[in-house]
């Protein structure tokens, strides 16, 4: 097919933005102002309960809402655990008075709808030393005020002052997701790395400034549409995190190419146009692969995850547009100060990186050995991924300094580990002739099941046709035996329903976590296949090669499983747990692999497109294939390394957080970026291309005629009149 001349189109866009720099800058400021206005006048993110269509626990939850309309199903709650001093009884008058006084303090909040004190036989242990009380609120956890949380803390302190051991846990304690100092630390590290990379304050500041403008527009845009689309604040946070990451990367690519073009073009406008025409083409296709990865989240079938993907994809689109227009506009305001100090002094030459040159000599001398060694290392690190167990890490994974962890341990010791994650059984008895007798029979069958410690008395709705039972497992919420128990109870259901004429479904936090883990695990392979398949097709168009897209996909899978292996080794097996503050092993967060695929695939393709496009560009301009590998590597490796270091620093900061889920996300993303950037893109990619030689750029003729030629390498950009074509092989001399 004919050439679409994307490089020429983007070159003209870059020149236009350079010439009309003030108009472009004002336009982006107007967009930012519009986003601020829309966000301020909107209702903001919603606090809806996460739903997982198609799983039993969700169906049971919906049935509860239908049959028990007066009982809120998404209200916040807290559990206060009390232990009598010196092995005494909690029912002693002095201890009972202390408990009642503490609960009265917690109930002072106008948001509290119900308080259930400890009672013998249900919420007081057999030896009478330990009991727990339930505090229910009439609002979701995200709407619990700081005053209500302060009253909970005051109640616990009051009980402690009266001589009791008191701890608390529950959704009411969870504060809404908010920004932390981690992002500021990441931005500071990014500024330092950018300054070292570009050798100019202006060049270092441009990617930061444009990325911040882009993520501000994205975050405010998500905030503005969150209400109508039913988005939670987590969607905006993901858009902010990913938008900042790709925003810095994309702007870096354009600024780096601008500095390089100024070595051969005295005219700054020409250099800006060529920078957008070449590096901008890589940005467009890298951004497209990210959007593909995020759009693929729709196959998972979890609405909240799909909305997160939609928000993040919007942030990536904004980052691409900013890199193509606002970056060249700002370059037009500082055409010379955006150059490095050595370039301004007239001593700058084509970028040379001694370490990169030494590394490429090693790779070119032993490409097969390097390839085998790199694959072996990643495969070895990925071995723990075979033991991946998905779930939702709970309070048991918190450090013992947290009151939630201590409350969890006290209750598990007194009532058994399963008391921290009871199962809710919803019995639909509309088809039974005697609903109460039938429900009692169901309760007896559940109690007789191995792995069930106890079953509560049934609670019927007003119509008397639906009942709730609470089954307490003998094992903890994240124990694999609890998952087996849920499956066993569901497998035994047909016989019970046939004998009693009733149907029942199992829900509750524990069952919901189990169902989510199974749903995400079953969706992981189709999701990866869809994302990788579409990306291979896109890279096929970009690089006009059969082997380059296949190599890119294979390298990504290696780094993905290696990063999952690190997560399993640390959080499931406990390796190096002390160094990272992991006090309790447990399952990997259910959404972690999906998020790794969506986020890391996009960042990996950024590096792949920018690195390999420089190699192909050299080859298209006449450099032999193997020499083009080292040429492209020398010209792009410095920027790829800088981008990867920035991302590792940002994500690594989250790995130091105290919250287990944040720690897991931070470590997983940091490990994935490290493996993909340094092992795959900067090691395996040049080694494999060196082995393939000219075959790396082979494409069947019939396919060559079918595919559009998008000219990502800028072959159509002729040098300006009176100027020589850049010597792309200079770095090899």
From TrEMBL:
<feature type="transmembrane region" description="Helical">
    <location>
        <begin position="208"/>
        <end position="226"/>
    </location>
</feature>
<feature type="transmembrane region" description="Helical">
    <location>
        <begin position="184"/>
        <end position="203"/>
    </location>
</feature>
<keyword id="KW-0472">Membrane</keyword>
<comment type="similarity">
    <text>Belongs to the resistance-nodulation-cell division (RND) (TC 2.A.6) family. MmpL subfamily.</text>
</comment>
<feature type="transmembrane region" description="Helical">
    <location>
        <begin position="639"/>
        <end position="657"/>
    </location>
</feature>
<feature type="transmembrane region" description="Helical">
    <location>
        <begin position="276"/>
        <end position="302"/>
    </location>
</feature>
<dbReference type="InterPro" id="IPR050545">
    <property type="entry name" value="Mycobact_MmpL"/>
</dbReference>
<dbReference type="GO" id="GO:0005886">
    <property type="term" value="C:plasma membrane"/>
</dbReference>
<dbReference type="InterPro" id="IPR004869">
    <property type="entry name" value="MMPL_dom"/>
</dbReference>
<feature type="transmembrane region" description="Helical">
    <location>
        <begin position="669"/>
        <end position="692"/>
    </location>
</feature>
<keyword id="KW-0812">Transmembrane</keyword>
<feature type="domain" description="SSD">
    <location>
        <begin position="184"/>
        <end position="333"/>
    </location>
</feature>
<feature type="transmembrane region" description="Helical">
    <location>
        <begin position="555"/>
        <end position="576"/>
    </location>
</feature>
<dbReference type="Pfam" id="PF03176">
    <property type="entry name" value="MMPL"/>
</dbReference>
<feature type="transmembrane region" description="Helical">
    <location>
        <begin position="308"/>
        <end position="334"/>
    </location>
</feature>
<feature type="transmembrane region" description="Helical">
    <location>
        <begin position="524"/>
        <end position="543"/>
    </location>
</feature>
<protein>
    <submittedName>
        <fullName>Membrane protein</fullName>
    </submittedName>
</protein>
<keyword id="KW-1003">Cell membrane</keyword>
<feature type="transmembrane region" description="Helical">
    <location>
        <begin position="588"/>
        <end position="607"/>
    </location>
</feature>
<keyword id="KW-1133">Transmembrane helix</keyword>
<feature type="transmembrane region" description="Helical">
    <location>
        <begin position="367"/>
        <end position="388"/>
    </location>
</feature>
<feature type="domain" description="SSD">
    <location>
        <begin position="526"/>
        <end position="691"/>
    </location>
</feature>
<dbReference type="InterPro" id="IPR000731">
    <property type="entry name" value="SSD"/>
</dbReference>
<feature type="transmembrane region" description="Helical">
    <location>
        <begin position="232"/>
        <end position="255"/>
    </location>
</feature>
